[in-house]
Amino acid sequence: MAEPRIHIASAVLAEQLGEAAREAGAAILEVVRKGFTAQKKIDASPVTDADHAAEAVVLAALARHAPGVPVVAEEQFAKGIVPDHGSSFFLVDPLDGTKSFIKGGDDYTVNIGLIEDGIPSLGAIYAPATDRLWIAHHGGKAICEDEAGRRTVHVRERASPMVALASKNHFTQGAADYLERAFPGEAIEQRAVGSSLKFGILASGDADIYPRLGPTSEWDTAAGHAILIAAGGRCDGPDGQPLRYGKKSYFNPGFCATSGWEAPPIASYMEPFGGGGDLPQGV
Ligand SMILES: Nc1ncnc2c1ncn2[C@@H]1O[C@H](COP(=O)(O)O)[C@@H](OP(=O)(O)O)[C@H]1O
Ligand SMILES: [Mg+2]
C-alpha cells in the first residue's frame, strides 16, 4: 500500500519562511551598502554577491524549519547542484529581478516556494527595497505586510480598463500581441514591473492579468503562484491548465496569471523557442 503523503505547508511554516525572506532581504541590503559588482553566469545571466548571500540565508533557514525537504535554488542550480526529489520540494530564487537590482531599481525580491504534489502550496516573497512581504499557504489566506501594516489581501473583480502587468526587463512582443488579439476592443492599461512583484500586485488586488509569453524558471513563479492562489487568483500554463512544477530543467515556457478568471490560453500566441527545448536558466 502506498504511504500516505505528508503535506508540510502550514501557517507556522509560512510565517517562518516570511521571516527567512526578510533576513535574506537584509543580507541583500547589506551587500548594497558595501557595494558590489556583477558577474556573468555560464548562461550569460548576471549574478552578484547579493544573490549568493541571500541564498545562503534562505538555505540555512530551510534546513532549520523544514529539515530533510529537498531544495532547488537558483544559484545552486547554476553550479549543477540539484537534489533528487519527489513531489515535495522547495524552489528558491534568492534575488529575482537581478537586472533591475544591478541598475539600482527597487523591483527585486526574495522568493521561497514549496511544491507539494506538483502544486505550489506555500510561498513567501519579500521586496527589500520597499520592505514589502507576502506570505501564504495552502488552505490559508494571502497576507501582505508593508507600510500599511499587516492584512489579508485578495484579488479584485476584473476591472475596466484592465490592468495588465508586464516584465520591465524582458519585454516580449508576444505579451502585447496576446492582449490585443485575445481581448479585442478592450481598454487595457499595461504596467511594467520587475520580478515576482507582479504576483504580489495581482494578489493584492491592484491588477487583473499578467501574461508571460516568454521564459522563466520555476523558482521565479512558485512563491508568487502560491500567494496568488491563496488570494483567489490563478496561474495557468500555455494550455490553460494550472502551471505545473518539477518540469525538465525547472523551465516555464510561458504562463498567464489572472485575478481568478479564465483567460484565453496563451499557447497559440507563444513565441517560438527554437524547437521548444530548454533555454539557459536565468537571464
Ligand atoms: N531567457 C530566459 N530564460 C530563463 N529565464 C528567464 C529568461 N528571461 C528572463 N527570465 C527570468 O525572468 C526573471 C525576471 O523576471 P522579470 O523579467 O519579470 O523581472 C529572471 O529572474 P532572475 O532575475 O532571478 O534571473 C529570469 O529567471
Ligand atoms: Mg528570478
From TrEMBL:
Species of provenance: Sphingomicrobium lutaoense
Cofactors demanded by this protein: Mg(2+)
Keyword field: Cell inner membrane, Cell membrane, Hydrolase, Magnesium, Membrane, Metal-binding
Protein name according to UniProt: 3'(2'),5'-bisphosphate nucleotidase CysQ
Binding of Mg(2+) 1, residues: 74, 93, 95-96
Catalytic reaction list: adenosine 3',5'-bisphosphate + H2O = AMP + phosphate
Topology within the bilayer: Peripheral membrane protein
Main function: Converts adenosine-3',5'-bisphosphate (PAP) to AMP.
Binding site for substrate: 74, 95-98, 220
